[in-house]
Amino acid sequence: xxxxxxxxxxxxxxxxxxxxxxxxxxxxxxxxxxxxxxxxxxxxxxxxxxxxxxxxxxxxxxxxxxxxxxxxxxxxxxxxxxxxxxxxxxxxxxxxxxxxxxxxxxxxxxxxxxxxxxxxxxxxxxxxxxxxxxxxxxxxxxxxxxxxxxxxxxxxxxxxxxxxxxxxxxxxxxxxxxxxxxxxxxxxxxxxxxxxxxxxxxxxxxxxxxxxxxxxxxxxxxxxxxxxxxxxxxxxxxxxxxxxxxxxxxxxxxxxxxxxxxxxxxxxxxxxxxxxxxxxxxxxxxxxxxxxxxxxxxxxxxxxxxxxxxxxxxxxxxxxxxxxxxxxxxxxxxxxxxxxxxxxxxxxxxxxxxxxxxxxxxxxxxxxxxxxxxxxxxxxxxxxxxxxxxxxxxxxxxxxxxxxxxxxxxxxxxxxxxxxxxxxxxxxxxxxxxxxxxxxxxxxxxxxxxxxxxxxxxxxxxxxxxxxxxxxxxxxxxxxxxxxxxxxxxxxxxxxxxxxxxxxxxxxxxxxxxxxxxxxxxxxxxxxxxxxxxxxxxxxxxxxxxxxxxxxxxxxxxxxxxxxxxxxxxxxxxxxxxxxxxxxxxxxxxxxxxxxxxxxxxxxxxxxxxxxxxxxxxxxxxxxxxxxxxxxxxxxxxxxxxxxxxxxxxxxxxxxxxxxxxxxxxxxxxxxxxxxxxxxxxxxxxxxxxxxxxxxxxxxxxxxxxxxxxxxxxxxxxxxxxxxxxxxxxxxxxxxxxxxxxxxxxxxxxxxxxxxxxxxxxxxxxxxxxxxxxxxxxxxxxxxxxxxxxxxxxxxxxxxxxxxxxxxxxxxxxxxxxxxxxxxxxxxxxxxxxxxxxxxxxxxxxxxxxxxxxxxxxxxxxxxxxxxxxxxxxxxxxxxxxxxxxxxxxxxxxxxxxxxxxxxxxxxxxxxxxxxx
Amino acid sequence: xxxxxxxxxxxxxxxxxxxxxxxxxxxxxxxxxxxxxxxxxxxxxxxxxxxxxxxxxxxxxxxxxxxxxxxxxxxxxxxxxxxxxxxxxxxxxxxxxxxxxxxxxxxxxxxxxxxxxxxxxxxxxxxxxxxxxxxxxxxxxxxxxxxxxxxxxxxxxxxxxxxxxxxxxxxxxxxxxxxxxxxxxxxxxxxxxxxxxxxxxxxxxxxxxxxxxxxxxxxxxxxxxxxxxxxxxxxxxxxxxxxxxxxxxxxxxxxxxxxxxxxxxxxxxxxxxxxxxxxxxxxx
Lengths: 917, 284
What we know:
The complex is a heterodimer of chains A (917) and B (284). Chain A is of the alpha+beta class. Chain A has 23 helices and 34 strands. Chain A is globular and about 80 Å long. Chain B has 284 residues and is α+β, with helices and mostly antiparallel strands. Chain B folds into two domains: 3-164, Uridine Diphospho-n-acetylenolpyruvylglucosamine Reductase, domain 3, CATH 3.30.465; 171-281, CO dehydrogenase flavoprotein, C-terminal domain (Enolase-like, domain 1). The longest helix of chain B has 25 residues, at 257-281. At the A-B interface, strand 4, helix 5 and helix 23 of A face strand 1, helix 1, helix 2, strand 3 and helix 5 of B.
């Protein structure tokens, strides 16, 4: 009995309603749900069962919809998050708790998380933490560090609403949280209507190859439904993109030779049906592999192939900072330490692969894709298309995680060319393999560091030389080369200092921006050697750092003197109690283990970090616009991309506070290059500080305008009513009727638009100057357990002190801290991207819900004179101290000096065996 | 281009005999294996076949249908000798994977790191193969013949696993080593099945190791050496290189060969202690 069901119908119940359709053989349930049934709340993160974003319930059991042939749903019940949070009591409770705990940041994993959690709560309404971890073990999150998710599931149904009216300092829910937990948020691949033409990029299978395209006309002619092939010949403007003037070097399509595995040479456009059948292996191209360089050593060898003309020796650029006389200081130091430290590529591993949609409208191009930098995208596309400024409109989709990589153009050039060439709307979503092959990475590093100190514990000379593997194209490599020397001292007073960093080309994916721009790599070397020098001095590691910490009035290595706002000592003070407790706990545990003969040892380690907020010595203004309509609606044009970190909420809180109205009055209009001013890119931990200041100024300007019209003083209260603003001062309330004011072109009767640019000054030839208007400071403590027999390292708990100046929203501060620590932990213990080997989320490992221990966040508020309400940036600061703190804890536990990350179990065990020799 | 979902084994075997067709069950290896290529257009879905599902008692042991999901095994009421298999089942991917992935799929995928294989080796599983020419059985160690290689002939399907009754009172353990908790391809893993005599010494031990050879292997020399060892001394039991002789680990991105051999010895001790610890508590 062979029941052919190819043409037969598949019937199942979707969220209670019967559906009938005819899936194509091989069509996944996820595709059917998203493209035929409109259930775009089912997210695709990997199409391989590794991330769980597509989790749905089939007959109540969580499965990955991406791994299930649609026909297997026959006769069954399929439930998705959209219905669960509406109709299921557990789903409703989870939706509330996720918002109350800020358990959704970018939100791309949230549908999978909530769906898996509903299955758990149906079986076990009061689960403990272990049961929650087991139940959520199939869903990866890259933003939250999982602890808020665990807390939300634990308290589902009895989750308290976080407090406050939204004023600065109140831990309110995210303004965009409801859309995330309900699955309504539209990410890059959620915009295109079903049936839209699809694109596929043809990529080099070799790190370096010459190539020849075959007969593209015949290729197109014999394939039904293929509409166009794009190559370098189809680029009307400049066939290059990049991020930094002078370094625009990456071709949209390679022209004769590719420089990294995965580099684009062509793109194919076709109907969804045709693209389903299309196998990229059939594309007519012949490859001639050429000798390639993969490592720093290979790239720097005299005979190495040169990647770019004018970058001799494959050296793309260098950064340099020097003060005092470091060699003389090291020579007179009482103790010195030195070390060579290495790290590999780290993948951003956001759960949303790069995706978007583009169409022509009235002769202009409109692109909706995930991005951290809409205005940079617009300018980059206009150059590629050879179009006038203003020809391209960028309306960013929601962003399912970025962490730096979505600062660069990815899908956008192909979408733009596709829409322009065909005249029809097109969509493009990278596969997980593609996004891991071709988007930017954290720079691998090779660092030589020497540090000296006097017997009294004072630092006496620091010399740093770091090479960074910047891959095939520039991307943000110059920023890394510039930032590292400014930061490599850590937040300490170092009078005699020299740091040089080089960005070196290899035939690897471009290294770019990744949370910290090279500073995390440098901090590993510096903070690990600090522990070693403290030991030589017989000083407590915390006290050694405290003694040398920067203070107000002391110059940084760039000669910059902050008269206020230096908060590193306050962070260390905050950590002291936990430090003592963790050292004592480790000592007691190890004493017991030694007498029992057990293989486990504990260790406590700490590390500090600092990070300058905003661009290094370059202008990076943000503009925020707001208006009030005649009906009394208050609109905030908030262009700071919210990639999960919370800008939508934080910027609105600052604005509402400055205007003097409740947060609930604010209606948000997001980034859109046609209607919202440029708030710069979401990078460099600049949005709270820079865009926050613009929002504060805009709120203050609107307030001043209203008060002036009512002749009221700054002490007056403003209230927005229907069609009027009411201004109350003492016993007197004035009504400003809005209907009598003339509306502008946008319908605003009152408006304000303000710009803020951080006051910085260029660095001179020695790197002296004012690179940043403010730094944020951090100190982390971790207690780890090392299984010395197997080499397994398990962090037990983190305590993280962060000087954020002023916590605009403590709930979101905590979210950044947890998420940054999770990424720092991944970098320390498991993450290493190997081109060609770890191009998926089962060979490239990021922490799961079971890896992340509890985090205690200690918010330190050392106000900054430049920050809005004293606030400092935070996003990148967090993962800077995490990895070195872990390495220091490992050393405390085992005595092993690790000089490379990640410390995988085999490397840990090898170090233990080496030490036992 | 057809999607065939027969409801009987005979129907599936007829479809297989009729020409090339890709077999799909849980889909958890099938779809990732495509990478970015299109799916085959002729598919044979065998998950609708009742006789390939479920766990049943037989006169001499247990029969596990080929398409039994790992979550069914984890939840099944089975003797303590199956605890290692259940523990391995909980390590097969995630909850989502365990709800879809089948036990035969784990075998047919023939990954050296398949979590299900070592415990099934200690349970001395046989694989029942069916074709329209009839049925045959192979020991599991012969069915998986190499990396990504199995002894399936054209037209054959795995119909079931047959597990003989384990020794009375046997206990089992499973120890897995990975770089993270959950959803991790094993660096190495060890399954053990032990029976203690009345004096608390090992009467019989079976030990199998995965991810350290092209196909997971039993360790006969170690099993022999362990006989008579008092349970209390297992944690410090000295495992010599000769005991691990069947293993041939490689260096890969998850770990070095030397590390694997080093870790396996420790994993053996821990899995044994875990199994015996359960026995010592005397539950059941």
